[in-house]
Amino acid sequence: MNDTINPLIQNKEHDETRQGEAVSLKGKVEKKAKNCYVESYGCALNFNDSEIVATLLNQEGYGITTDFKEADLILINTCSIREHAEQKVRERLRIFTSVKKNKPSALIGVLGCMAERLKEDLLEQEKMVDLIVGPDGYRSLPELLKEAEAGHKAVNVLLSREETYADISPTRLATNGVNGFVTIMRGCNNMCSFCVVPFTRGRERSRDAFSIVAECKQLFDEGFRDITLLGQNVDSYHWKNETENSEVNFAQLLEMVALIHPDLRVRFSSSHPKDITDDVLFTMLKYENICKQIHLPLQSGNSRILEKMNRTYDREWYMAKYDRIMELIPECAVTTDIIIGFCSETEEEHQDSLSMIDYCRFEFGYYFKYSERGGTPAQKKFDDDVPEEVKQRRLDEIIAKARHYSLIRNKEAIGKIYKVLVEGPSHRKPETEWNGRNTQNQMVIFPKKNVQKGQYINVLINDASAGTLFGEIVD
Ligand code: 5AD
Ligand code: SF4
User: Fold this and answer.
1) Does ligand 1 have an atom closer than 6 angstroms to the CB of 41?
2) Above pLDDT 90, what percent of the chain?
């Protein structure tokens, strides 16, 4: 994949660089007599799901191991969003299944979006797999495990209209102890024509607002200082409180979380341009601790393509939305996703995506070549007719332009002082340099001095690259 880092949620969300690396869960859950190995691909929602799974398995007596060779249960939480993600999972499955030669009792399970998309076919194709569990089936893992232990193939790919796992506070496993992720809703009702998510994660449902606030508060008490509220389309969050006959929308939820403590930074991802409201923008303005950053996927800068994508907005609408954000919150960072080479995209239409980058000067973006997914409206209705080499060339052009603006924007930060939340030692020089983020989610690197993880400091920026700001701590 060609995009690089994700400032939004630590390389987690739908970043195939991260997918390539795969993150195996390790952390607070210790090893026990029986141990499980969990590897996750895809978006931050999926990583959060893996933590829910680890919590459920812990209740069943499983510990966590980071070495799949010694695991009694190997789980791979999968992503279907692009072909590449699925290929990677199949490669990993080949490696995992070889473990069974030495340890025939080990069980292998496929979780998540690929389990949902391919269902029983996956058992046909990958004969060594014992369990197939879709995103709404994790509560049934104890029964499924019993079936699998008895030598039967165990499958639960039922999608639910209600399941939000609201009562499960996931054990944070792959974490730095500062940045936390909280799922506020599941599924998606949008039906963008290219997207497999409505089929793999089902209908949209919002989680109990009080359970979200309680989980965020617990994270704050444990030392977390930067929480990202996660959903496919957070602006359509809408929870009905049946007991009090009241309702909570996303702006209200944001406020509830922001009020937990002024030292708790709140972020959210992702927003749909059709749904983000002025109410949300005013709430962001009202609270200093709601971060000034919006991930607003564009997908295409051309109105005909947007219509084919069923995005329900056009180029002008997106521009107006962007203008409104800038008018109300001029310091806000806007980041985006763009799909390149969608069905029948012409050279001129591609130019429209490029010119939108000129217009919005996105702080950061994820840029993807279109990958046809079986069963989606686009696969049924349109030809995936942009040749691979054309997609690649257009992607390179988009990335070059986006990098150009990332560098310009970061250079504009030189001379400014930012409030930075310290996250820990930098990757390159962990002894002497530390890193953190500002409200816009730009990565800032500075000489260590006397600071601690989770502390807020002021940093004067004195240099910048396209991906990082460099500075010094000031009082
Ligand atoms: N091909 C390429 N990119 C896709 N995305 C979603 N579906 C596809 C697809 N079929 C991208 C969109 C979305 C992000 C999560 O992944 O840009 O916003
Ligand atoms: Fe996440 Fe979508 Fe991938 Fe599922 S298909 S893991 S929802 S990015």
Assistant:
1) no
2) 85
